[in-house]
Amino acid sequence: MSETQVLRHSEWLRSETREEHATLEATAFNRALTEERLPLASYVGLLKALSVVYGVFEHAMRIVRDPCVEAVWDGSLTRAHQLEVDLDHLGRTDHPEPRRAVEAALDLGDRILRRTVEDPASLLGHAYVLTGASLGQWSLVPTLERTFALDVDGLRFMTGFGPDNRRRFDDFRAALDRLEL
């Protein structure tokens, strides 16, 4: 890269999260998911943990007053409600709480809330990861349909915005890249 080229925010975030993304994809949980061996209770546990993260994140994005956040985030990408619909359908109370996953989600929720006060613009990094996740999650829908015999109900979160996932992410990324930080 020449001295006159500038790395766009989304490119920087992608490079900074690449290692964590690869680590997550290599987990036993992900292997069981993609190999159609994941128990339903583990899938429900994942959705429970994600409901904590998305709930806290979306709350933070609603209350934060920061020009950078307001220039990029308009609320049209919220997905916590999809998690709640899926959990209601799958019987959230019929499955044990995945203690480690919930503890990790609560820890991340705490960090998100601290950023709301300490460094609001950094919430856009979380927004990048959570918005971009919809692209990979959508590709898992056929596997989840086969593994758990689910249709739309139970898969709303993983489906995200369906065929519109890519456009929504690209619009978010373009708005992020227009920021002058």
Descriptive key words:
181 residues; mainly alpha; 9 helices; globular; disordered N terminus
Précis, in short:
The chain has nine helices and no strands.
Characterise this structure.
The protein is built from nine helices and no strands. With 181 residues, the chain is an all-alpha fold.
Total DSSP helices: 9
Shape: globular
Round the mean pLDDT to the nearest integer and report it: 91
Sketch the major β-sheet.
none
> What string gives the helices and strands in order?
HHHHHHHHH
Structural class: mainly alpha
Q: What's the end-to-end separation, in Å? A: 20 Å
Low-confidence stretches: 1-5
Radius of gyration: 17 Å
- What is the number of strand segments? 0
* Beta-strand residue fraction: under 5%
Helix content: over 70%
Tell me the layout of helices and strands.
Blueprint: H1 9-25, H2 28-34, H3 40-63, H4 67-72, H5 80-90, H6 99-118, H7 123-148, H8 156-159, H9 165-178
